[in-house]
Amino acid sequence: METYLNVCKLLENLNRYKFLLTEGEQVKFEYCNSESIFVVTDQRIICINKNSDSLDNYVIVPLSKITGLFLQVNADTMKCDIDFIIPGIEKMQISLFISKENLEKLVKFLNNKIN
Known about the structure:
With about 120 residues, the chain is an alpha+beta fold. Helix content is about 15%, strand content about 45%. It is globular and about 35 Å long. The model has no long low-confidence stretch (mean pLDDT about 90).
């Protein structure tokens, strides 16, 4: 996947996905570009195709269903590919432009939720 998402202001795109959140669910990280939004909450990851209002353009995976992740980082450009391992789906990949500090926060959060 060559479409990379950038960190954005938390809840910047909330109107696009707030109906997907459960009561009390907290958004922890949000990344977007002109086509997609990637959201990490305290319970799930949500991937959204911004170019469609159809419900088939949302992928929602509970963090409890993710059994592992692979991380590949290009340190020069801070391009990061994350492969989430999900039984029954095989894997889901997200690509981000992310600073080292933000990457460390995201990975620490995911490791604590997945393991």
